[in-house]
């Protein structure tokens, strides 16, 4: 399933890999929102995990509310858990995939990547994307 918006795809997008939770510091949410606002101000679109919760939701809301393009890619199995109604990102382009194996980093939309580091662990999709782009 795909939904479309009227916001055109920008010439540059950043693919962000981050959590559907807020982590252990309120500063994380604030910095995620700052990143989203800066991306929009610099005319970068967002490609991300498609959720509206946690840090990924904060980034998407900030990009969208500042008038920039948002493209979410989310596995169907995660829609109920990570995608709650949010007026701030109603303008999102959304792809709902039938499998977790359909990663967002496989799209030609991505010009740069931001990957949240979780302790000594990097988000798996980000690691896969980096390895795909080094082949």
From TrEMBL:
A GO CC annotation given for this chain: cytosol
Gene3D superfamilies, sorted: 3.40.50.450
GO molecular function: hydrolase activity, hydrolyzing N-glycosyl compounds
One GO-annotated biological process of the protein: cytokinin biosynthetic process
Taxonomy, superkingdom: Eukaryota
A Pfam cross-reference name: LDcluster4
Keywords: Hydrolase
UniProt cross-references to PANTHER family, sorted A to Z: LOG FAMILY PROTEIN YJL055W (PTHR31223)
Protein name: Putative cytokinin riboside 5'-monophosphate phosphoribohydrolase LOGL9
Organism: Pichia kudriavzevii
């Amino acid at each position: 399933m795909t939904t479309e918006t009227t916001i055109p795809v920008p010439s540059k997008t950043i693919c962000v890999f981050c959590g559907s939770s807020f982590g252990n510091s309120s500063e994380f949410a604030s910095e995620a929102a700052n990143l989203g606002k800066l991306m929009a101000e610099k005319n970068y679109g967002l490609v991300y995990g498609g959720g509206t919760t946690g840090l990924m939701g904060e980034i998407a809301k900030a990009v969208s509310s500042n008038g920039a393009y948002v493209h979410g890619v989310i596995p169907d199995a995660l829609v109920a858990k990570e995608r709650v109604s949010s007026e701030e990102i109603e303008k999102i382009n959304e792809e709902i995939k039938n499998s977790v194996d359909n990663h967002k980093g496989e799209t030609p939309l991505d010009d740069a990547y931001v990957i949240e580091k979780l302790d000594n662990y990097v988000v798996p999709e980000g690691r896969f994307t980096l390895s795909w782009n080094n082949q």
